[in-house]
TrEMBL record:
One of its GO terms (cellular component) is mitochondrial inner membrane peptidase complex. It is found in: Membrane. This is Mitochondrial inner membrane protease subunit 2 isoform X2. It is a single-pass membrane protein. It comes from the Eukaryota. GO terms for molecular function: serine-type endopeptidase activity. Its main location: membrane. GO terms for biological process: protein processing involved in protein targeting to mitochondrion; signal peptide processing. The lineage of its organism: Eukaryota, Metazoa, Chordata, Craniata, Vertebrata. CDD domains: S26_SPase_I. Keywords: Hydrolase, Membrane, Protease, Transmembrane, Transmembrane helix. PANTHER family: MITOCHONDRIAL INNER MEMBRANE PROTEASE SUBUNIT 2.
Length: 91
């Protein structure tokens, strides 16, 4: 019984160490480097989602290109507007 509790304790401790390292690394990567997004609807047809509303495409949003102003003609840019940003744009 004591042997099985020791194994569980070591497993839980290793899991916690990995979890508390992996989560901040993953969040930083998704925030600063790139993230995956799903394109649904007809707004980007025919370039993305050519099958119509029944299908969806998955794209990689590259944050480095936008941050370094390396956007070129033909690139697709994604914008996220919050409530405070809408007022600034409408002025």
């Amino acid at each position: 019984m004591a042997l099985s509790q020791g194994w569980v304790k070591r497993y839980f401790k290793a899991f916690c160490k990995g979890f508390f390292v992996a989560v901040p690394v993953a969040v930083t990567f998704l925030d600063r480097v790139a993230c995956v997004a799903r394109v649904e609807g007809a707004s980007m047809q025919p370039s993305l989602n050519p099958g119509g509303s029944q299908s969806s495409d998955v794209v990689l949003l590259n944050h480095w290109k936008v941050r370094n102003f390396e956007v070129q003609r033909g690139d697709i840019v994604s914008l996220v507007l919050g409530p405070g940003n809408v007022e600034e744009i409408s002025k």
